[in-house]
């Protein structure tokens, strides 16, 4: 009886109350009202709510009001705010309970700042009863959203740097609305006519951006500064972009690129782009060794007046030109070729720089007005042969002619002509007869070299390639390789049907020469053995004898020989089978690699002509047939595996692995019988 009375009381005490805040939104400077509501607070006499808030939300003094229809006329309300936390306290000196347990208990007002965002109001609430005990309370916070546009510029200062006059230079500024309402830019204006902005106004949706293009067209050298003002309804007010530039007068000397064949003369053009009146000029060049100045070749163009003179001098590798007007007559026009001179291309192919040095472009006051210079590249066109200096045939069989590809590239600037190819040995020849390629600049060709082995063993020779490459008129290529007769063993393995404890290894031979004796070591896993009586020669080796010696636990040495030197004729086919027996039934041979090495294939002259010294074979039988649970043994557990599967699925056309004992492509009760037979064979 006591327990029955206690349970309802416990449930009543632990019942949870709820305190929730409303949400609101507005614009900068607005005041919004937040309501605090309670439910299930019938035992409460006091409420404490501490509400952390952003500095963008400020409490409106004296705006908090309690609802005395929920509390009572006996309850007091105290409020404090320190710009980061709002503290609200409702309490009764007489510990009077709230009159109602549900409803809006108080309201207060917040003034909104100018930073657009949604701010969380997550109060920490304590409800207390008459015994000063805390009442379990669930709290639901509110949100306050400040709605307004806000402008953001990726740059507030732009420096065009040094730029030439009488041309247009553009900079872009990204204007972004990082607020949550549409940004309206009413005016964008530059403080100088040298700067043009577009567009002059714009509207940008919340979260989007637009590009403001600022074009600058300087007219005179010096310094330019201005401000670009941006007026808008953004919460962070109008913006200013500070702009500066250092315009200069363009007076540039440029040399034009040139090219030609080795041994030719080429004409070099020198031009001037000038915004100032130029009456005299000078420049020098450091000449590469392959470029030679043609004496007296400097010639002025029509831009120079009749009283303008030019001289060209060479001192060491320095070529210098001096141009001046006897009457201080400026050059005509503002751009174009001023003079030319000639260079002899006296060298092999390549690219060479020709950069103007010590440049002076003088005005009537004797001031150097040079703003920049541009050099040139002089290209001497010549072929360049690139190829390997060695051609390795590797190991090649004696039985037939062999070929090897050889690539020649032309990395030069003109066609490469292969004039002839010669070999120091007659065993080598070029496929395709005597026709030789002409390789275009940047191209390549592939020659096919033939070799007919005459003797077994290492061979070498020299291939000589003659071409019109001025730097490499003959390229010697060393040829090497090793010729052999194909005489090699091949290895296969096979599990013995219906006997998981036996495995047969078969060796075959493919031979060009007649072989009279064979020796090899065969490596196996410990736990499987063989013996002399388990070796079987095939009909191909019936005239020979065998001998077996155990070298180690996992290695046997096999000899196949003829006392009368009776050969195994050239051809291919199996020679011998070796049967292995398991000593330990739990041995799993799946994935084991059988290795045969130390191979000797002897001819009648007692020479070893084996093409390779080892062969291998990896067992991949997918496990023992009948070993359904893959534990390396055939037991009653494998029978149960099949029975359980058949009871679930019936006859299966997709048998479990290793379950198709009778090899009919299905799994049936016949395979169960087959496994039982295998188990009986193991016990015999």
> What class would the helix/strand composition place it in?
mainly beta
Average pLDDT number = 88
Biggest sheet descriptor: 6 strands, mixed
Shape, per Cα inertia axes:
flat
* Fraction in helix: under 10%
Question: What report would you give on this structure?
Answer:
The protein has 684 residues and is mostly beta strands. Helices cover 6% and strands 51% of the residues. Helix 2 (636-649) runs antiparallel to helix 3 (669-683). The longest helix is centred in the last third of the chain and has 15 residues, at 669-683. The relative contact order is 0.06. The model is unreliable at 1-14 (pLDDT under 50).
Short description:
With 684 residues, the protein is mostly beta strands. The chain contains three helices and 55 strands. The protein is flat.
Quick tags:
mainly beta; 6-stranded mixed sheet; disordered N terminus
What is the fold's blueprint, element by element?
Elements: H1 2-14, E1 17-21, E2 24-26, E3 31-39, E4 46-52, E5 57-59, E6 65-66, E7 75-81, E8 85-92, E9 103-112, E10 117-121, E11 124-128, E12 134-135, E13 137-140, E14 142-146, E15 151-153, E16 157-164, E17 169-177, E18 183-190, E19 195-198, E20 202-204, E21 209-216, E22 224-232, E23 239-248, E24 251-255, E25 258-261, E26 265-274, E27 280-286, E28 291-293, E29 299-300, E30 308-315, E31 318-325, E32 337-345, E33 350-354, E34 357-362, E35 372-374, E36 376-381, E37 385-387, E38 390-397, E39 402-410, E40 416-423, E41 428-430, E42 438-439, E43 444-451, E44 457-467, E45 474-484, E46 487-495, E47 502-511, E48 517-523, E49 528-529, E50 535-537, E51 545-552, E52 555-561, E53 571-582, E54 593-602, E55 614-618, H2 636-649, H3 669-683
Parallel strand pairs: 1-13, 2-14, 16-23, 24-35, 25-36, 38-45
Antiparallel strand pairs: 1-3, 3-9, 4-8, 4-11, 5-9, 6-9, 7-8, 10-14, 11-12, 15-17, 17-21, 18-20, 18-22, 19-21, 22-23, 24-26, 26-32, 27-31, 27-34, 28-32, 29-32, 30-31, 33-36, 37-39, 39-43, 40-42, 40-44, 41-43, 44-45, 46-47, 47-53, 48-52, 48-54, 49-53, 50-53, 51-52, 54-55
């Amino acid at each position: 009886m006591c327990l029955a009375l206690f349970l309802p009381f416990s449930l009543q005490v632990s019942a949870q109350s709820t305190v929730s805040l409303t949400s609101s939104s507005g614009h900068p400077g607005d005041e919004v009202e937040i309501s605090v509501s309670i439910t299930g607070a019938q035992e409460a006499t006091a409420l404490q709510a501490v509400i952390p808030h952003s500095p963008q939300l400020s409490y409106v003094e004296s705006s908090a009001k309690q609802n005395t229809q929920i509390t009572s006329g006996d309850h007091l309300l105290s409020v404090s705010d320190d710009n980061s936390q709002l503290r609200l306290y409702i309490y009764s000196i007489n510990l009077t309970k709230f009159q109602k347990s549900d409803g809006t208990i108080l309201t207060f007002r917040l003034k909104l700042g100018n930073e657009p965002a949604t701010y969380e109001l997550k109060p920490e609430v304590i409800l207390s009863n008459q015994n000063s005990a805390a009442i379990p309370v669930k709290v639901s916070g509110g949100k306050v959203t400040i709605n307004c546009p806000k402008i953001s510029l990726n740059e507030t200062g732009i420096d065009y740097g040094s730029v030439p006059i009488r041309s247009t230079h553009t900079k872009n500024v990204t204007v972004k609305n990082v607020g949550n309402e549409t940004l309206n830019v009413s005016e964008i204006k530059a403080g100088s006519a040298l700067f043009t902005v577009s567009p002059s106004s714009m509207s940008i949706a919340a979260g989007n951006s637009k590009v403001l293009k600022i074009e600058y067209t300087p007219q005179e050298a010096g310094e330019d500064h201005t401000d670009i003002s941006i007026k808008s309804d953004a919460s962070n007010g109008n913006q200013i972009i500070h702009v500066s530039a250092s315009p200069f007068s363009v007076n540039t000397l440029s040399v034009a690129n040139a090219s030609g064949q080795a041994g030719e003369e080429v004409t070099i053009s020198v031009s001037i782009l000038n915004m100032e009146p130029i009456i005299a000029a000078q420049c020098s060049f450091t000449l590469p060794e392959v470029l030679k100045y043609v004496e007296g070749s400097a010639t002025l163009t029509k831009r120079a007046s009749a009283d303008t003179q030019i001289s060209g001098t060479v001192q060491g590798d320095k070529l210098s030109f001096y141009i001046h007007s006897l009457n201080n007559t400026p050059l005509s026009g503002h751009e174009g070729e001023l003079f030319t001179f000639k260079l002899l291309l006296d060298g092999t192919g390549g690219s060479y720089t020709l950069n103007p040095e010590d440049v002076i472009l003088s005005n009537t006051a004797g001031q150097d007005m040079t703003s920049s210079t541009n050099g040139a590249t002089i290209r001497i066109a010549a072929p360049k042969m690139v190829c390997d200096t060695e051609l390795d045939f590797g190991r090649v069989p004696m039985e037939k002619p062999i070929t090897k590809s050889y690539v020649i590239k032309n990395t030069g600037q003109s066609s490469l002509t292969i004039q002839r190819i010669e070999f120091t040995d007659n065993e080598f020849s070029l496929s395709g007869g005597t026709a030789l390629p002409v390789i275009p600049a940047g191209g390549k060709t592939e020659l096919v070299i033939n070799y007919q082995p005459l003797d077994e063993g290492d061979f070498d020779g020299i291939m000589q390639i003659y071409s019109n490459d001025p730097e490499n008129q003959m390229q010697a290529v060393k040829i090497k390789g090793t010729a052999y007769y194909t005489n090699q063993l091949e290895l296969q393995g096979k599990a013995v049907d219906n006997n998981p404890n036996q495995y047969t290894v078969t060796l075959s031979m493919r031979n060009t020469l007649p072989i009279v004796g064979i020796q090899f070591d065969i490596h196996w896993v410990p736990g499987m053995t063989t013996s002399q009586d388990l070796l079987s020669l095939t009909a191909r080796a019936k005239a020979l004898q065998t001998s077996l010696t155990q070298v180690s636990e996992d290695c046997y040495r096999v000899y196949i020989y003829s006392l009368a030197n009776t050969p195994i004729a050239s051809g291919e086919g199996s020679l011998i089978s070796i049967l292995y027996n398991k000593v330990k039934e739990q041995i799993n041979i799946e994935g084991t690699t059988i290795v045969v090495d130390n191979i000797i294939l002897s001819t009648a002259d007692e020479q070893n002509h084996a093409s390779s010294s080892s062969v291998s074979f990896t067992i991949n039988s997918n496990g023992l047939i009948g070993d359904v649970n893959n534990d390396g043994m055939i037991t009653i557990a494998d029978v149960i595996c099949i029975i359980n599967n058949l009871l679930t699925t019936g006859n299966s056309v997709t048998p479990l692995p290793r379950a198709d004992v009778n090899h009919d492509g299905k799994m049936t009760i016949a395979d169960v019988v087959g496994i039982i037979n295998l188990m009986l064979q193991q016990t015999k």
